[in-house]
C-alpha cells in the first residue's frame, strides 16, 4: 500500500528506479534496529541512506556513477541540515543532524577500466 513517488513530490529526484522513502522505511523496520549498519551498493539518489539517517541507523552507500556529485551528495546535505522535509521526515520528526564522509575511488577504478579495455583489444 505504498504509493509511487508523485512526479511533483519534493522527494522525487530525476533518476529512474527511485524508491519511496516509505518503502525503505518498511524494509529497515523489518530487518534492522537503531544503530544497525545498512549497506547500499547502488546508492543512486540516496534514498536508503537518507532513510537510514532519519531512522538512526548507520550506513554505507556505494556508487560509481558521476551523478553522485549533483544528486546524492546535495540530497544528503539537505538531510543533515534538516532542509529535507520530504519522505518520512514528518513521520519521524526529522530535524536534521549527523555527518558523512565521502570518498572517491575513480583514480583506482580507472586502472581497472584500462586493463579491461586492453584485454578486449587483445581478443
Q: What does this entry look like structurally?
A:
The structure is a single chain. The protein is mainly α. The protein contains four helices and two strands. A two-stranded parallel sheet has the order 1-2. Helix 2 (47-54) links the parallel strand 1 and strand 2. Helix 1 (21-31) crosses helix 2. The radius of gyration is 17 Å and the shape is elongated. The chain starts with 20 loop residues before the first helix and ends with a helix.
What is the strand and helix layout of this fold?
Elements: H1 21-31, E1 37-40, H2 47-54, E2 58-61, H3 72-81, H4 106-122
Parallel strand pairs: 1-2
Q: Give a count of the beta strands, DSSP E runs of length 2 or more.
A: 2
Coarse shape = elongated
Main sheet: which strands, in order across? 1-2
Give the count of helical stretches.
Answer: 4
Beta fraction of the residues? 5-15%
Q: Report the uncertain regions.
A: none
Mean pLDDT: 85
Which percent range fits the helix content?
A: 25-40%
In terms of structural class, how would the helical and strand content be classed? mainly alpha
N- to C-terminal distance: 51 Å
Describe the biggest sheet?
Answer: 2 strands, parallel
Please state the oligomeric state of the protein chains shown.
single chain
**Which series of helices and strands comes N to C?**
HEHEHH
Integer-rounded radius of gyration: 17 Å
Amino acid at each position: 500500500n505504498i504509493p509511487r513517488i508523485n512526479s511533483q513530490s519534493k522527494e522525487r529526484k530525476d533518476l529512474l528506479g527511485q524508491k519511496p522513502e516509505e518503502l525503505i522505511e518498511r524494509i529497515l523496520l523489518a530487518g534492522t534496529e537503531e544503530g544497525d549498519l545498512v549497506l547500499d551498493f547502488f546508492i543512486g539518489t540516496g534514498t536508503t541512506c537518507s532513510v537510514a539517517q532519519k531512522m538512526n541507523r548507520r550506513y554505507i552507500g556505494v556508487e560509481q556513477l558521476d551523478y553522485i556529485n549533483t544528486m546524492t551528495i546535495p540530497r544528503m546535505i539537505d538531510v543533515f541540515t534538516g532542509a529535507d522535509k520530504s519522505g518520512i521526515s514528518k513521520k519521524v520528526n526529522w530535524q536534521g543532524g549527523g555527518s558523512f564522509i565521502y570518498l572517491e575511488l575513480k583514480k583506482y577504478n580507472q586502472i581497472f577500466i584500462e586493463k579491461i579495455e586492453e584485454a578486449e583489444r587483445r581478443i
